[in-house]
Design brief:
Blueprint lengths: L10 H4 L5 E6 L3 E6 L2 E6 L3 H10 L3 E5 L6 H10 L3 E4 L1 H10 L7 H14 L10 H29 L3 H30 L2 H11 L6 H10 L8 H7 L23 H17 L1 H12 L4 H22 L7
Parallel strand pairs: 1-4, 4-5
Antiparallel strand pairs: 1-2, 2-3
Helix pairs in contact: 2-3, 4-5, 6-7, 6-9, 8-9, 9-11, 11-12, 11-13, 12-13
């Protein structure tokens, strides 16, 4: 929306202030709220913005925006600026807790800045070109798999011969695309020493195949740098209490990175069936009255904690 509107700043005074910049990301521009006010910046000027922040030894917080934030992350990484990515739902809850019910791009950027200043939020590490490519391929594979699921449902919902032939043609096309994406994923991992070594470690664990290893590499690049609590929360595998007074509510999981959680659940299901240690852990839970699905979720969480430790310590899976 127009050319760069420079962020007004007193460079001598600015260094003494908290140089945190909250950013609301749109498709063609970003709204920025910093120590000196608000600016709207074209995406073509992200490099200049990142350099301005770097000169002030600042850091930038922004919401995950379905990929629109990627050019900003690239510009920040190139300038060496620390970046903080925030879950949009958490940012909205924070705004509500402050009584800020209005929602505009400028308001959202201000809330994001205040959230980054008040809370101890982890920085998101810079992404390599190999990782960005892998994430794009992983996203495309997930989209195609979801499309194929919908077509299979449609196949079961019609008895018309012509419609069934049409659905089968689409399914064959989708499968060809999925096969091609999977070949590209394998080539992407093989061409990167870091991705290749991490994938090899992950594949030594029970239940972790090519799909779940790729999902972990693409959806959780922080793996190996997190505490057990943090890794479980990021995947949405941390049980949340719902107690009030004398009532003890059922613990439920939720939030986090659902696409990764869905893949990990299948890995946990396989591990609970095939690994003696994890199968014994699952059996102990069901013996105490846990439902089978609850036991599998607990196995999945335990498996993810083990994977996190494996990457941190650079060691393959070691049965107890």
């Amino acid at each position: 929306m127009g050319r760069l509107q420079p962020i007004p700043c007193d460079w001598n005074r600015g260094i003494m202030m908290e140089s945190v910049f909250g950013v609301d990301v749109a498709k063609g521009w970003i709204d920025v709220v910093g120590p000196d006010g608000h600016a709207r910046i074209d995406t073509s000027d992200l490099t200049r913005f990142a350099r301005q922040v770097a000169r002030r030894n600042g850091r930038v917080a922004f919401e995950a925006s379905g990929g629109y934030e990627t050019p900003l992350r690239v510009a920040l990484a190139a300038a060496g600026v620390p970046a903080i990515r925030i879950d949009p739902r958490r940012a909205r809850a924070f705004a509500t807790s402050l009584g800020r019910l209005a929602k505009t791009d400028r308001v959202d950027a201000g809330v994001i800045r205040e959230m980054a200043m008040r809370l101890d939020l982890p920085e998101c590490p810079p992404e390599t070109e190999d990782l960005r490519q892998l994430k794009a391929l992983q996203l495309r594979r997930r989209q195609l798999v979801e499309d194929a699921k919908r077509e299979k449902i449609r196949l079961g919902q019609t008895s018309d011969a012509a419609m069934r032939r049409s659905v089968r043609r689409v399914l064959r096309m989708l499968q060809r695309e999925i096969d091609g994406i999977e070949i590209a994923i394998a080539q992407c991992i093989a061409s990167s020493e870091e991705l290749r070594s991490r994938a090899a470690l992950l594949r030594t664990a029970p239940g972790v195949g090519p799909v779940s290893a790729t999902a972990l590499l693409a959806e959780m690049p922080e793996l190996g740098t997190l505490t057990p609590r943090q890794v479980a929360a990021l995947a949405g595998l941390a049980p949340m209490a719902r107690d009030s007074g004398l009532r003890t509510g059922t613990r439920r999981i939720g939030g986090g990175r659902k696409p990764l959680r869905d893949v990990l659940y299948m890995a946990g299901l396989s591990a609970a069936r095939n690994d003696p240690d994890l199968r014994a852990f699952s059996d102990r839970l069901t013996a105490t009255g846990k439902a089978p699905k609850q036991a599998i979720i607990a196995v999945t969480r335990k498996l993810l904690v083990i994977l996190n430790a494996m990457i941190r310590e650079n060691r393959p899976y070691q049965p107890s």
